[in-house]
Amino acid sequence: MSYNPNNPIIVQGDKSVLLEVDNDLYPEARDILARFAELEKSPEYVHTYRITPLSLWNAASAGMTATEILSGLERYSKYPVPDNVRVDIVDYISRYGRVKLRREDGHILLTSEDTALISELAHHKRLLPYVISQADPNTLLMDPNRRGHIKQALVTIGYPAEDLIGYVDGESLEIRLRPVTASGQPFALRDYQKEAAEIFYAGGSAYGGSGVIVLPCGAGKTMVGMAVMEQLQCSTLILTPSTVAVRQWIDELLDKTTLTPDQIGEYSGHKKEIRPVTISTYQTMTYRKRGTKRRGLPLLEEFPHFKLFDERDWGLVIYDEVHLLPAPVFRITAELQARRRLGLTATLVREDGREEDVFSLIGPKKYDVPWKDLEKQGWIAPVEVTEIRITMPPSQRMEYALTAPRQKYHVAAVNPRKLEILDLLLQKHPDDQLLIIGMYLDQLEEVRKRYGYPIITGKTPVRERRKLFGKFRTGEIQRLIVSKVGNFAVDLPDASVMIQISGTFGSRQEEAQRLGRILRPKKNGLLAHFYTLVSRDTKDQDFSANRQLFLTEQGYRYTILYDDEVADYQPATLAGEFCEIPPRQLGG
Known about the structure:
This protein is α/β, with parallel strands linked by helices. 35% of the residues lie in helices and 18% in strands.
């Protein structure tokens, strides 16, 4: 095949892939790479991706073949794809599903047409604790109580199993989606929501029933969950990141399904209701009694609320914001493999690096829609993303220089000059519904004193939070200050501007969630704006660069401004307009 030196991709022998940003074919090449490679770095001009076994297995589970991957690389590569990379892509893709888990006569069998592989696995130290015996050259008899642990071991070994054992039906529950909501609005699933639910369900066969749906915040992941519930018609346990999210699930279920209030239970720090559909939080589930934080305790003794998993015959467990799943919930999920499991998330990135556990215990990625595709279709708002780099006052710059490494980020993040830039940005968005979000409570309190805006933090009672969010939705208040409790599962459809004054170090998943607060489509097609304020030449700027990996993955180009340019900056209002900025500051 001939290669074109004008193409944007260079594939290297270590399975890293370099992508030139300033290239006409950049958007198409980026969209191809995003399906089977992980973005590692995204400076202005050249982005670095890496092809990993897990990225390839997620691609395979979503139906992508080695031929498609190699074809995509060849189409956009400047130079020939190294032979070792070709071989490894074919090999890793072929490993997905080469071994299968089946049930036969009450036994769990691990099978493969590759007899040598079965022999190798039968003696592998990671899998050996779960092997009862070798039934024949192609079959291992496995411990029936360790289904999740077997799958974890196989992913670690490098041969992820296709789980065809199937699932229990669970307790029957009649549930239908309403054509008209309880609030009187017409309601129907969008095509991609319907498609995601159908791919997960897979006609009720063992090929479906476990996996992760990746959709942007604001794209209706909750609707996908409700569509799956309608298909399965069974009792459902829903785990969420917060009590506010619990209440929002309840509101949506009552508004858009035929479920009645007595069929929906809240299991949180405030209530302990167990009903056909029960919604809890990760925090509640991982509550420990004082003095029980030690290794070796039975799960129910260490985490008493785990009994909820056995309180009803659940047919489905939904993990909302699955990228936040705490480690103890992974432990119990390893023992829940007979229940159908649906993960919902805007990003598969986990800050603890446990993406393999999501893959093996919840399931592989089943469905993913690029954010920009949904933006083009009008389902989420177009967004202007702007990073503003702010110098520190000399006295604080000296304090930063002398501060211990672990405290440097805090000193940089609370740079007082950020408030001066905040003044200017507020003036440029006088009529917008605007959120100011940050990590440090002392900094947020300073913002509250400066402007008098209402504030929501972890100490704000849930009732007060819901009241303030409600006033923000109706436009009764236009400005709201929120701590990181505002990151997750807060439905604010009219928020059009977010100003991030500090973040959680380099958290890409947090960037995804914060951007998602302003992605609901705006009236008259108006743009949303996401600003992040960082202290120049500090850890604040370094961490921001890591968070922006997420934005780059989703196809967003971001503008970099310096503090002395903000006064003359004019934000665009409609998609397709250009904000007035010096061209030298364009980032990518």
